[in-house]
Specification:
The protein is 16% helix and 58% strand. By secondary structure, it is α+β, with helices and mostly antiparallel strands.
């Protein structure tokens, strides 16, 4: 009986994996050209991430362009139909985030602005809820100023979830370069954000 039960469990698990793999293979490939005007954003980069436990049937898709470092984020279904979309900058890295208020999230590191002597990047925590993409939190992750003839100033922010995902703690480090001199300034106090369930945003904690 034990051997038979083990074989039955193995067969069920194998069937589940095959079914999931077949479902993923059957889904339409995300087509960045169909989602956004290629000419409007320049050279494109498309990234795809499953939406939480929904698996590959519903996916996050970011389409980014080098023109003004802009782009969009989409939620699409298995057929490639758009469920929701929102504006976003040029995404460098994206990954699945934790469940927040019962729903999965996407964490995206993206450029908000990049020009001569300026580099600004942000972290966004996005969620697909009630048919729309909401921005739970958006905060700088890096700010660089390299304008010739002025001080080179770089600020890097580190963040982590706290309070079981209902809070976010942010710390920063500022580095200033002037000629061959290097000065570091550490922020002594951390910023804290708390999830406001009514606004569905992380707001400064009181």
């Amino acid at each position: 009986m034990r051997a038979g039960s083990a074989m039955a469990l193995w067969a069920a698990a194998a069937a589940f994996v095959l079914h999931a793999g077949a479902a993923q293979a059957a889904c339409a490939r995300a087509d960045g050209d169909a989602l956004i005007n290629h000419g409007a954003i320049g050279l494109m980069k498309t990234r795809t991430t499953p939406v939480g436990s929904r698996g590959a049937a519903i996916r996050w898709v970011t389409v980014s362009g080098t023109s003004q470092m802009n782009g969009n984020v989409f939620v699409i279904d298995c057929r490639g139909a758009v469920r929701a979309d929102a504006g976003l900058g040029f995404v460098e890295v994206q990954r699945r985030g934790p469940l927040i208020a019962g729903e999965p999230t996407l964490i995206a590191n993206y450029h908000t602005f990049s020009g001569t002597g300026i580099n600004v990047q942000n972290i966004a925590i996005l969620q697909y809820r009630n048919g729309a993409i909401i921005r739970l939190w958006d905060h700088p992750s890096f700010e660089g100023n390299y304008v010739p003839g002025t001080e080179t100033d770089e600020t890097t922010y580190r963040w982590r979830f706290s309070l079981g995902g209902r809070g976010i703690e942010v710390t920063g480090r500022d580095v200033v370069l002037l000629g061959h001199q290097r000065r570091r300034h550490h922020y002594p106090m951390a910023d804290h954000f708390c999830l406001n369930s009514k606004a569905m945003k992380y707001l400064p904690c009181h």
